[in-house]
Design a protein that fits this description.
199 residues, Rossmann fold, six-stranded parallel β-sheet, two-stranded antiparallel sheet, 7 helices
Length: 199
């Protein structure tokens, strides 16, 4: 008697941005949509540590937990940067919302003490954390078809053109206006799920 191998179902990991949390608007909109439309899907929205080395260690531990499952990511801002690193290393697919492309340049202006507005946790960034981010850089994506980048041109935090260039050969949506939070994100959730789970 031959055994049939049942493929494991996909797992979605939502990775929030810098100074954000699982309670962010987009994370909760994603969770609400998936709970209704994909009730059997495993969805994990971790609280990502504030320091890059701890963040990637926590995320890689999560990836290992779901070893064998097709990996799917939604990453916002810094979460987009980390999602790209994980897809390049472990495979899978990712939807990136106003992703950070060179956060190691951006965070030079953020050195010093911060308080996460969601968790009230205080932390201090220094030059060592810039180096940690640089070590996670993926200058070129090896499989552009694995990514969909959603960008809005009036992002007040990041220059959308960096992501437009990096993901030029990927699925790319560039909306005029908007802001760093990506206004109207929930409009795309049906298409995001099609891209992640039905392709």
């Amino acid at each position: 008697m031959t055994q049939t191998h049942t493929p494991l179902s996909p797992v979605l990991i939502y990775i929030h941005g810098f100074l954000s949390s699982p309670q962010s608007v987009k994370a909760q909109q994603t969770l609400d949509f998936l709970t209704v439309h994909y009730p059997d899907l495993v969805v994990d929205i971790p609280e990502v540590p504030n320091y890059p080395d701890l963040a990637i260690a926590a995320l890689e531990s999560l990836v290992n937990k779901y070893q064998g499952h097709p990996l799917r990511f939604i990453g916002s801002s810094m979460g987009g940067f980390l999602s790209t690193y994980l897809v390049e290393k472990y495979g899978g697919r990712a939807v990136l919302i106003n992703p950070a492309v060179k956060p190691y340049e951006l965070l030079v202006d953020y050195l010093g003490e911060h308080v996460n507005p969601y968790t009230n946790k205080t932390f201090t960034l220094d030059e060592s954390h810039i180096a940690q981010l640089l070590a996670l850089d993926t200058p070129v994506v090896t499989s552009p078809s694995r990514y969909w980048a959603l960008l809005q041109t009036d992002d007040e935090t990041l220059d959308y053109r960096q992501a437009e260039a990096k993901y030029a050969n990927s699925k790319l949506t560039v909306e005029q206006g908007g802001d760093h939070s990506f206004q109207g994100f929930e409009r795309y959730l049906p298409q995001i799920c099609t891209f992640l789970f039905e392709n």
